[in-house]
Amino acid sequence: MEVIFLKGHNKGKVGDIVTVKNGFGRNYLIPRGIAQRATPANKEAFLARKEELEAANLALLESAEALRDQIGEASVTIQREASNDMKLYGSVSQRDIAQAILAKYSLEIDPKSILINHRIKSLGNHEVKLQLHHNLVIKLEVLVVNQANR
User: Fold this and answer.
1) In this predicted structure, what is the pLDDT of residue 149?
2) How far is residue 73's CA from residue 51's CA, in Å, rounded to a whole number?
3) Class of domain 72-146
């Protein structure tokens, strides 16, 4: 299936016409408004509003860069109960990290934009990534401390 990207994505930028698998296009890209089918009518409609979409994407990138500058070298601390061998009784989720960012920086971050490579199930420092824009990813240090050691 050929699609036209209306928003930036790691598969392409605004205006790119790419071939994707049918399920990916039909079930993910199109319902989320990231892309539309590349029919001749849609191509014409896209060309008519291409500048508007590119300007909106540029504005999103600029706001993401401003957010990056505001956060800087980001780090958050999360308190969790842990056993004597420093293992957590649960795990730290994307939602937990987003709430910690909200508490520390007063910024609302979409939990889906927090990229965790491994499950956080132990005390200590963990590095995760925060995707502010499809082109802009920053590092975020997460310090998990024992709740008993307040």
Assistant:
1) 52
2) 34
3) alpha beta
Q: Where in the chain is the domain with CATH 3.40.5.10?
A: 2-67
Q: What is the pLDDT of residues 34-65, one digit of tens each?
A: 999 999 998 888 888 888 888 888 888 888 88
Which CATH number is 2-67 given? Answer: 3.40.5.10
Domain with CATH 3.10.430.100 in the chain: 72-146
Which parts of the chain have pLDDT scores under 70?
148-150
d(CA 77, CA 124): 10
Helices (H) and strands (E) counted in the chain, each on its own, are 3, 9
pTM: 0.71
Which residue in 59, 2, 60, 61 sits closest to 30, CA to CA?
2
Instruction: Supply φ then ψ for residue 109, to 5 degrees.
Output: -115, 135
91 membership: H or E segment, kind and range:
strand 87-92
